Amino acid sequence: MGQDSDANTAQREYWNEVSGPKWVAVADLIESQLSGIGRLALEAAEAKPGERVLDVGCGNGFTAIELARRVGLSGKIVGIDLSRPMLTDAESRAQAAGEEAIRFIQGDAQTHRFAADSFDLLFSRFGVMFFDDPKAAFKNLRTALRPEGRFVFACWRDRSLNPWMTLPAIVAAEYLEMPPPPAPDAPGPFAFANADRVKGLLKDAGYERVAGQSVEPGVRIGTGRAREATLDFILQMGPAGAALRETRADEATVQQVRAAVADRLAPYWDGDGFAMEAAAWLFSGRKPAAG
Fold first, then answer.
1. Rounded to whole angstroms, how far apart are CA atoms 207 and 215?
2. CA 14 – CA 277 distance, rounded (Å)
């Protein structure tokens, strides 16, 4: 396996210098939020004992550890991610879970030179929407997959179907000058919201039997945490928090935004977190047979 090129530099810097350390600090809270959709993706992947699995955008290692349990000692798990802080956390978690055989690689899945035909399954939970060149990335990942090997990945549907992520930003926009929204296909959480586009990318990259399934299990934010602490988390990690930092809002404005977000989210609080709507795609397909 060789070295990566300088492609996707912006994402590399973001996940190492900005977002990665923040995710590590609240990794367990984020995991409780994403685990429902992650569980659906893992069930769809059907990892079997003895299989070799590449976890793309493996982050803090939660899905890599679960995949390792499913493939057993005769299988192999490799996790790849841009973020060194998150991978360091993943390595610690894997060791604590007794899954020390997982190999974690810091690299860019769209350019990393994988050994050809070395995996039975490509898996990702919200780790593939940040490619600078998704078609090239999926082509590169296809080289790592054996003939007739399969992939399953989860990605977010349209932002309008995910108020858990967008509502705080909508509220913040009443008090702050928000940055313009990114182009619909730009790297980011909603880059793969358009199912027809994603299917086209995957087919152009050489996969077959490509399918997309909508899942809407919702998310729960802040399970086991106090309401005020959960609000702190929402304003730290989401786009509303980014806007507060980028505009260098004064304390009075920060408190106004916080109070308004708390008010708007109040109907979603059920005593053990904010229960909110969420919608994702589960995409699947295969590499064609050899010959």
1. 22
2. 27
Q: Tokens for 71?
A: 């493939």
**Position 226, amino acid:** A
Q: Residue 245: name the closest of 253, 261, 45, 82 by CA.
A: 253
What percent of the chain lies above the pLDDT cut of 90?
74
77 phi/psi in degrees, rounded to 5: -120, 130
The yes-or-no verdict on residue 2 having pLDDT over 60 is no
Domain boundaries, the chain: 9-157+185-218+280-286
Q: Report pLDDT for 222.
A: 92
Q: Taking 50 as the threshold, does the pLDDT of residue 3 lie above it?
A: no
Q: Whole-model pTM above 0.70?
A: yes
149: exposed, middle or buried (Cβ count in 10 Å: 0-12, 13-18, 19+): buried
Question: What is the token pair recorded at 86?
Answer: 């998150």
SS3 106: strand
What is the rounded distance in angstroms from the CA atom of residue 175 to the CA atom of residue 276? 23
Q: Which CATH number fits domain 9-157+185-218+280-286: 3.30.1660.10, 3.40.50.720, 3.30.930.10, 3.40.50.150?
A: 3.40.50.150
